[in-house]
Amino acid sequence: xxxxxxxxxxxxxxxxxxxxxxxxxxxxxxxxxxxxxxxxxxxxxxxxxxxxxxxxxxxxxxxxxxxxxxxxxxxxxxxxxxxxxxxxxxxxxxxxxxxxxxxxxxxxxxxxxxxxxxxxxxxxxxxxxxxxxxxxxxxxxxxxxxxxxxxxxxxxxxxxxxxxxxxxxxxxxxxxxxxxxxxxxxxxxxxxxxxxxxxxxxxxxxxxxxxxxxxxxxxxxxxxxxxxxxxxxxxxxxxxxxxxxxxxxxxxxxxxxxxxxxxxxxxxxxx
Length: 271
Ligand code: GLN
Fold this sequence. Notes:
- It comes from Formivibrio citricus.
- By secondary structure, this protein is an alpha/beta fold.
- It has two domains: 7-61; 86-270, Rossmann fold, CATH 3.40.50.
- It contains ten helices and nine strands.
- The protein has helices at 7-12, 18-29, 33-38, 46-60, 65-69, 92-102, 118-126, 139-152, 210-222, 238-247; strands spanning 71-74, 77-80, 108-112, 131-136, 157-160, 172-177, 223-232, 250-257, 263-270.
- Strand 1 and strand 2 form a beta hairpin.
- Helix 2 (18-29) crosses helix 4 and helix 6 (92-102) packs parallel to helix 7.
- The radius of gyration is 21 Å and the shape is elongated.
- The N and C termini lie far apart (77 Å).
- Glutamine binds at residues 86, 89, 178-182, 194, 202, 232.
């Protein structure tokens, strides 16, 4: 008889940190954390061990937990994710908060490069009065985003578009974006979760500001007077972002810091 394995030991022996192991176990078995606490010392069922082992092995090889479970929470709601889209980051909640604080009642709002849809879906659910449009250049990402909008009950208009390409003649009171802003040789692209995320959603294959230059240059054409442009960027891109906004004639140009105290969002108002 092989020695019996308890649930506590199964998780401990996985070599994963506890929160990863818990997330994968719950996903693999359909049980919640309370169940696991109650059954900590029970003998593991063979079918539970099998599904958990295969997920744990993939995690040890580096696959992000969110891709293994197919889900990541953003602004308190569960979003479906796949390797077709960037995994929503908590820092991006800052962009959402700044947008919510600046969107006039009933405003038309645009999100450029929506990925999983976490930004436009959250804006619509937090503020049902807004008319939210979201674009992405990637068709698989739009399928993912539309699925999230439907599942969470958010009426968002999705359009396949290379930034403003498919939006000729349209204007908005507020434009937001979390574009690919990582510089092409940034070593982080070869580390951690980023290795498994879509490269086109992370880097511009240039100096990191290439997409921001296009967005900032074209945004005034699509903003109503007084409308805000707000976008996320890297910790060292605050000065560069403000310079772009000022050169394009934006007023009230500023940068906001995230919870870690790093420059994370910049924006300005169309004069
Ligand atoms: N915030 C992400 C990271 O640094 C990058 C996301 C992006 O390029 N928009 O990991």
